[in-house]
Amino acid sequence: MSQFKVSFALKQHTPIIHFQSEQRGATLRATELKPKFDSFLLEQVEGIPFKENANGHKSLDYKVKIEAKTEISDIETINPRNGKSIPNPLFFGNMGDGEKKRFSMASSISVEFFSFNSEVLDAIKNNFEAFLANTNFGTRQSKGFGSFYLKKPLDTSLIKHKVYSFSSSEKEWQENIKFFYAFLRAGINTANFRGIYAKAVIFTYAKSKNITWDKKAIKSFYLDNNENIENEKLMRDLFGLSSVQSWMSYKATITKEHQEIDRFKSPVTFKPVLENGKMRIYFWADKSVEKILNKEFIVKFDRKSGLKLKTPTSFTFDEFFEFAFSLDLSKHIDLQYHSNPQYTKLVKMFNEIKESK
After folding, report:
1. Which residue has the higher pLDDT, 194 or 223?
2. Cβ distance 115 to 121 under 8 Å?
3. 3-class DSSP state for residue 257?
4. What is the DSSP string of 256-318?
5. How many domains does the chain have?
6. Which range marks the domain in which residue 296 is found?
7. Looking at residues 122-151, what average pLDDT do you find?
8. Fewer beta carbons within 10 Å, N or C terminal of the chain?
């Protein structure tokens, strides 16, 4: 191999959602990988030489080539949420008439880097595995899509944050992430999760801090005409801002407005990795939640306005996770649901997470 090149063989663990996935070879794109890897290296490698354009954008001097083998059988159509088919648990697109996105899996994939700069090439050699450990690709990447890694077990020590994990069958990993994430953020209702009901963990956490969480505050203000709510905060949006939300049981639309913030990506990332025929779902939270703390939003209920809610002044996911995984689920979830298979699944998840800490 040329002294100016370095290559890696990758394994794809979960489908990437791709707008060109009806084509052979549609997979991980260099146009997505390079900017992400540039940012990672600039953050991790002190003094790495870079180029800077007139707009102040920094990039590194290397080229990347991706070669992948995909077959038509590796392409899967994603069902839309139109009431006519069973929708995908974690992807909400394909609703309009535009170009449809599909799942794409590569049976083999290699990434080759080329650079005349030896410092840059050494940085690539020493940091590409860590980059893959911390990164997913494509649409809905925080929910586990587009998970790639080297052909070896995941080295969790390379992940920059505290890592937790639980196991899943390869077939059910999407359903299990949806179920687990809903329990943390929004709660579980009997209609969506096969006859089990449970309050959201973030609600219980807020209550432990004497905080009135946003859903109760919105209902009190707009439905009960109660303006004397104490210590109300936006809590669910710490998991990612839902600027428009449908409350189906009230046939209402909730909107949240901020003069500077219209989007906030979830700080929680799931990275499923296929190990010994089973999917291991690793997850962690980054520090980006700090960007949304102590921010005030105007919260509207359909056309009604007047409620202003702030996010809390302080919050860390590591503290929240410690609280969550110390919960006694037998008390948190009512006894009538303990015979439900979903309750058994949740208990198993929590036990595995505690062991993985």
Report:
1. 223
2. yes
3. strand
4. EE-SS-S----SEEEEEEEETTEEEEEEEE-SGGGGGTT-EEEEEETTEEEEEEE--S---HH
5. 2
6. 167-356
7. 95
8. N
The model's confidence at residue 69, banded by pLDDT at 50, 70 and 90, is confident
pLDDT, tens digit, 9 for 90 and up, residues 73-122:
444 555 554 444 444 555 544 334 445 667 788 888 999 999 999 999 99
Residues 111 and 58 in one domain: yes
- 245: buried, middle or exposed (CB in 10 Å: 19+, 13-18, 0-12)? middle
The angle formed by the CA atoms of residues 132, 12 and 44, to the nearest 5 degrees, is 5
Both 324 and 192 in one domain: the answer is yes
What is the b/e burial string over 188-225, where b = at least 16 CB atoms within 10 angstroms of the residue's CB? beeeebeebebbbbbbbbbeeeebbbbbbbbebbbeee
Cβ-contact 87, 77 below 8 angstroms: no
* R_g (Cα) of the chain, nearest Å: 22
Tokens (6 digits) for 13: 């663990």
Q: How far apart are CA 189 and CA 16, in angstroms?
A: 29
The pair of three-digit structure tokens given for residue 336, joined into one six-digit string:
């009538």
Give yes or no for a contact between 206 and 230, defined as CB atoms under 8 angstroms apart.
Answer: no
Pair 180, 144: CB distance under 8 Å: no
Same domain (yes/no): 196, 339: yes
Question: What type of residue is 241?
Answer: L
Take residue 291 and report the two structure tokens written for it. Answer: 């960007």
Residue predicted with more confidence, 10 or 80: 10
Confidence tier at 191 by pLDDT (50, 70, 90): low
Q: Where is the domain boundary, 140, 155, 183?
A: 140
Length of the chain: 357
